Amino acid sequence: MKKQFITLLFYLSFFVLSVGATDTWTISTSSKENYNGITLGNGRIGLVSSSQLFTVTDIVMNGVYDKENSEGVSRIVRGPLFTNLLLSIDGTQITDKNISSWTQTLDMKRANLRTQVQTDKAEISYTLRALRNFPYMGMIVVEMLPKTDCMLEVTNSTVFPGELQETSAIYKMLKDGKIELPVYTSQAKSLTGMQDLATCAAFLFDEERPLIYASYTASNQQAMSFNVQLQKGKSYRFALIGSVCSSRDFVNPKNEAERMAVFALQSDIDYFIEGHEKEWNRLWQSDIIIEGDDETQRDVRLALYNLYSFAGENTRLSIPPMGLSTVTGYNGHVFWDTELWMYPPLLMFNTQMARSCVDYRYDRLDKAIQRATLYGYNGCMFPWESDDSGEEATPTWCLTGTFEHHITADVGIAFWNYYRVTKDINWLREEGFKVLKNIADFWTSRSVKNSDGSYSINNVVGANEFAPNVDDNAFTNGSAKVALECAVKAAKILGEKYDPQWEIVAKNLTFHYMDDGVMKENKTYNGEIIKQADVNLLSYPLGIISDNKSMRLNLDYYAPKIYEDGPAMGNAILAILSSKL
Question: Which of the residues 277, 465, 485, 521 is marked catalytic?
Answer without folding.
Answer: 465
